Amino acid sequence: MKTGDIRNPGDPDARDLVERTIRVDQAGEFGAVRIYEGQLAALRWTGRANSEAGRKIAHMARQEREHNKVFDRLLVERRVRPTALSPLWNVAGFALGAATALMGDKAAMACTVAIEETIEEHYAGQAAKLGDEEADLKSTVEKFRAEEMEHRDEALASGAEQAPAYEALTGAIKAGSRLAIWLSTRI
C-alpha cells in the first residue's frame, strides 16, 4: 500500500496527507506538553507537586516533550509549515491543564484519559493511511500511540473515572480535542 491510496474525492494527496500528519501531530504534542505544564503549575500552587499524581504527571510530561521534539524535528526536515494556531494551543493547553488540576487529582487524570483516547483514535487513523514509503513516520505514530495508551491506562488506574462529572468533563475535553485536531490539520 502507498500513502494516499485509500482516499475519496477531495481528500488530500499523498504529500498533503504527510504534511497534515506532521503538522497536526506537532501541534497535538505541543498542546499535550502545555496541558501537563498547566497541571504541574497548579499542583505546585496547591502544594501537591510531590504527590503521587504529581509524579505521574511529571513522568507523562517528560514523554510528551520527547514526542514534541520528534515532531519539531520532522517539521524542519520535511519542510512542513506548522499550524498557525500554536499561540492558541499554548494558552488553551495550559489553561485546560491548570483548571483540571485545580479541580483535583482525579479531574487531572480524567483530562489525561480524554486527551489520550482522542489521540489514540487519531493516531490509529493516521497509521492506517500511511503507506510503505512512509514506514518511519508510521512507526513513530504507532510508537507514540502506544505510549499515549499507557498514559490513559495510568490515569484510569489513578481513579480518573471518580472525578466529579467524569462523563461531562471527558466528553467536553474530547470534543475540544477533536476540534483542535481538525483545525490544526488545515490551518
Plain-language structure description:
By secondary structure, the chain is an all-alpha fold. The protein has a single domain, classed as Ferritin, CATH 1.20.1260. It has 6 helices and no strands. Helix 1 runs antiparallel to helix 2, helix 1 crosses helix 6 (166-186) and helix 4 packs antiparallel against helix 5.
In short:
The protein is mainly alpha-helical and 187 residues long. 78% of the residues lie in helices and 0% in strands.
Helix and strand topology:
Layout: H1 14-45, H2 52-77, H3 86-103, H4 105-129, H5 135-157, H6 166-186
Helix pairs in contact: 1-2, 1-3, 1-4, 1-6, 2-5, 3-4, 4-5, 4-6
Summary tags:
single chain, 187 residues, 6 helices, mainly alpha, Ferritin, 78% helix
What is the correct CATH architecture? Up-down Bundle
CATH topology label: Ferritin
Task: Tell me the β content.
Answer: under 5%
What's the shape? elongated
Secondary-structure element order, as H and E?
Answer: HHHHHH
Output the number of helix runs: 6
Q: Quote the distance from N terminus to C terminus.
A: 28 Å
Strand tally, please?
A: 0
Radius of gyration: 16 Å
Average predicted local confidence, pLDDT: 90
User: According to CATH, what is the class?
Assistant: Mainly Alpha
Q: Low-confidence parts lasting 5 or more residues at pLDDT below 50?
A: none
Give the domain tally: 1
